[in-house]
Amino acid sequence: MIEPSGRRERKKAATRQKIADTALRLFLERGYDAVGIRDVAAEADVAVTTVFSHFASKEALVFEQDEDFEERLARAVTGRAPHEPLIPALRREIQALVRHCTADSAAPIWHMIDASPALQEYEESMRLRHAESLATALAAAPDLPQTTTACRTIARFVIDAYSLAREAADPEAAVDEIFRMIEAAWEVARLSRPA
To answer: How far apart are CA 112 and CA 110, in angstroms?
Structure first.
């Protein structure tokens, strides 16, 4: 009998979460460099191939919500109500991410990331990918006729807002300050686009 896709998807998501939780626990207990994929697989009681079917690399285990965040940013553009302003929609997503990443429980994870060149490099490539994905969503939105350069620039500003706010003494105030500048830049781009 074929299992319903809903059940299969729930099981797949649970396995993925179990692997990610196990990896993070091991990384924090033993150190990122001291833990291998085989260690994660053994502790999570799955095959190494199962780990790789859910995560493309060891670094991806640390950033397990990467795809969700990328999709949420694109949905902030494409899922807006008719005539809902763009910048406040993006600001809400960045603010939610900053709150998540500046919670006290996230501090050990960021210490680990900051101490690992491999994780820092992965985070940088992830941010560039998110910016390109967001730029693509902006360029495709029919109510946001902008040049490719304007879309890519605003997307980079939005993604960088997250990093800058996360590192600020007052992340919420930093998000507000940065998004005032992003909104001004978007308005300049809107007013200066060719007719």
So the answer is: 5
